[in-house]
Design brief:
Shape: globular
Oligomer: single chain
Helix content: over 70%
Number of helices: 12
Largest sheet: none
Number of strands: 0
Strand content: under 5%
Structural class: mainly alpha
């Protein structure tokens, strides 16, 4: 593992610790009470998104490596960034955290299985490329699950201190995330950077936008259509539309070891925070206007 990939792993672990530190064990007893909203969000994240991404990649003219990279974005559901946006716009943060908590466990199994499916489907003669189920399981366990569990334990034992550092930690984690992407984006290939070119960005951008905006709009409107309240509909749109691009880079760059496959995640990360924030602000403001 090169220096940049090691940094990505460390930042992901810190982010998951921050999510855990915002929770208590008792929260897990109440956060799943509204099963309809929770299950809708989870189904869209774990089933709809991979299918949607597969259709986009299948009918695109992207290179096989980029098709795999775009598909892998869709199997890495949103993490702390989506939680942070729900917090900023005052959506249903508890629902956001509930989805993050559960999908972090489910991806222990879904990421290696679906990554290998994409490699087998899109890459010819890919017998030398595969994602180890065992390695992925332990990477996700130690980088996502364990730090989150330690965060919950920390909040249980040091509740006052956890509340004090909670808000600054969200901003620190967001800045660290930006730093990691900056290094990956501008770093040389020799040091673990992507070596992405302007032509690469222009080619990938329409497909990344289609995946991102399509996922947000479809999931949000489906939630509204099924009578889920507007607050939770916005949260579902945020969670489904904003993917964990840091995790996608970990999978493509570290587990698969292919820099070309990291490029879709880098392009996706360039705009997705701001477009998601804009989408969430618009739908939340629309909700307030609809009340009057």
């Amino acid at each position: 593992m090169n220096t940049i990939d090691a940094l990505i792993s460390l930042v992901l672990a810190l982010i998951m610790f921050g999510i855990g530190a915002s929770l208590k064990v008792a929260d897990f007893k109440t956060m799943f009470e509204d099963k309809k909203a929770f299950l809708t969000g989870l189904v869209f994240q774990m089933l709809f998104l991979p299918l949607f991404a597969f259709l986009i990649t299948y009918f695109s003219d992207l290179s096989p490596a980029w098709k795999v990279g775009l598909f892998i974005i869709a199997i890495c559901p949103g993490g702390t960034t989506s939680n942070f946006i729900s917090y900023i716009v005052r959506a249903d943060t508890a629902l956001s955290i509930a989805l993050t908590s559960i999908n972090s466990i489910l991806i222990l199994f879904s990421i290696p299985l679906l990554s290998n499916f994409a490699l087998n489907f899109f890459i010819e003669n890919q017998s030398t490329i595969s994602v180890s189920i065992t390695e992925t399981f332990f990477q996700v366990l130690f980088i996502l699950i364990l730090p989150a569990a330690l965060g919950v334990l920390f909040n249980e034992k040091c509740s006052t201190f956890s509340k004090t550092i909670g808000k600054p930690l969200k901003y620190i984690n967001t800045l660290l995330l930006a730093l990691v992407f900056g290094i990956k984006f501008f770093g040389s290939k020799a040091s673990g950077g992507s070596g992405i070119l302007t032509e690469d960005i222009l080619t990938l951008l329409p497909y990344c936008l289609l995946l991102h905006i399509g996922a947000m709009v479809i999931s949000y409107n489906y939630a509204k259509f099924t009578k889920i309240n507007k607050l939770q509909s916005t949260t579902i749109g945020i969670e489904v539309g904003l993917q964990n691009t840091t995790l996608a880079i970990l999978v493509t760059g570290t587990l698969i070891g292919n820099n070309e496959m990291t490029k879709p995640a880098l392009v996706f990360a360039m705009f997705s925070f701001f477009t998601t924030l804009g989408f969430a602000t618009f739908t939340m403001r629309k909700e307030l206007l609809d009340r009057y």
